[in-house]
Amino acid sequence: xxxxxxxxxxxxxxxxQFAKVGKIIRADEQRRYVVPSAPGKRNSKDTKVTDMLYACxxxxxxxxxxxxxxxxxxxxxxxxxxxxxxxxxxxxxFKKIAENFKQKAGVDYAASRGEYLNGIIMANYLGYExxxxxxxxxxxxxxxxxxxxxxEVLSKRxxxxxxxVVPGFYGALPDxxxxxxxxxxxxxxxxxxxxxxHASVYENWTDVSGFLVADPRIIxxxxxxxxxxxxxLRELSYMGASVLHEDAVFPVRKAGIPINIRxxxxxxxxxxxxxxxxxxxxxxxxxxxxxxxxxxxxxxxxDMMNSEVGFGRKVLQAFEENDISFEHMPSxxxxxxxxxxxxEFEGKEQQVISSIHRLAKPDTIDLEGNLALIAVVGRGxxxxxxxxxxxxxALAHANINVKMIDQGSSELNIIxxxxxxxxxxxIKAIYDIFVLTQI
Length: 439
Ligand code: ASP
Prior knowledge:
This protein has 439 residues and is α/β, with parallel strands linked by helices. It folds into two domains: 205 residues, Acetylglutamate kinase-like (Carbamate kinase); 151 residues, VC0802-like (2-Layer Sandwich). Helix content is 37%, strand content 20%. The protein is built from 14 helices and 16 strands. The strands form three sheets. Strands 3-4-2-1-7-9-10-8 form an eight-stranded mixed β-sheet, with helices on both faces. Strands 12-13-11-14-16-15 form a six-stranded antiparallel β-sheet. The protein has a two-stranded antiparallel sheet with strand order 5-6. Strand 12 and strand 13 form a beta hairpin. Helix 2 packs antiparallel against helix 3 and helix 13 crosses helix 14. The longest helix is centred in the first third of the chain and has 20 residues. The chain is globular, with a radius of gyration of 25 Å. Aspartic acid binds next to helix 7.
C-alpha cells in the first residue's frame, strides 16, 4: 500500500513545521510519495515565499534591482536548513535562479522555485529521491494540463522509486518551459501523483482538521465534517467553502482514491474523508452550509408565460449575448427569476434588460440587488423528511425573510436566497437547528 502525502505552505513554513512533517511521514512507512508546497506564512503578518517570488520577479521585469529581495527568499530557506541541521547548501541553486531571472525565464518559472527548493530540502531531510516536477508533469501547447502524457511518464518513473519528493504547483510545457497551475495548485500535483502510483489514499495535510460544517468566521468552533462525497464537496466549494483546490478532485476521483484532509498541527485528528460514495450517514442530516453575498435577482413577468414555448430560451439568450452566466433560475407560472453575480451584472444591467425586452417581450422586469445565496448541502436530505420545513421555520424564528428557494432534483442541496444583511444570521439559524440542537 502506498500513500501520497501533500503538505501545504503553513505545514512547511519553518524548521519547526518541517520537523512535525518529518515525524508524520516517518510514523507510517506507506507515506512514500511526498508533495510539498512552498514555505507559507509563519504568522499572520508574514509573507508566503510564493508571493515573495512574484514580487521579486516583478522587479526583474521592471529592470530593477532584484538581488536583495532574492537573498531575503534565500534566508527563508537557509533558516529551515539550519534549523534542521542539514548539510545542504542552496548557493548554487540561487546562483542559477539569479542567472535565469536575468535571462527573463518567466513569471511561472520564478513562482515555481518556491516548491522546487522546498522539495530539495524535503528530499534531503527525509532521505527520499528528489524528482523535479518539470520532468514528470506536463502541459500541452495551449497550456492545458496533459493528463495522459503525465500519467504515462510519472507512473513509469515512480514505479522504480521506493520513495520520492515531487514538488507541487508546476510542470513543463512541451518545449520545457516551466508552467504553474493556478494558485494553490500543489493540491493538484498531489492528486496527480496519487493517481500515478495508484495510492490507497491521498493525504492532504494543512492547518485545519478538515472541512468544517460552516464558515468559522460566522460560526464559532463549527463541527468538522467526517465524510463528504465529491459531489457534496463540489456544491460547497462552489459556494465559497475552500480548503482544497477545486481541480484537485478530478485525477483521484476518476481513479477511485479517497482524499483525507489532515492537520499537521494536530496529526491525531482524523480529519475529513472525501469519497466517491458512502453509506455512512452524515452526523447532522446536512453535511455543510456555505454561501456567498452579492447577487441580483432579475424577475421577469409575462401573462401566459407558461404556454409560450421557448420563452426561457429567449431570456437566457439575452444573458448569453451579454456574456453573463447565471447561477439559479427558479420559475413560477407567469414568472421567471434569474440570479446573477452583482459585480458581473451591474455594468451591463440596462443592456441585458433591453436584450430581454427585444427577445422575449415580457410585461415587466424587476431587479433586486444585494442578495446572498446560501447552500445547505447534504446527501442525508434525500432520505430525511422535513429538511426544508426545518430550514424555513428556523429562518422564520430568526426573523429572516426568504426571497428564494431552489432545491436541485438530486435532493443534495437546497439553495436559499436572503438579503445580504441577513446572510450571517441565516447561516447561524440553519447551523443551530441542524447541528447545535443535535449535539
Ligand atoms: N505555493 C503556491 C501558492 O501559494 C501553490 C500552493 O501552495 O499550492 O499558490
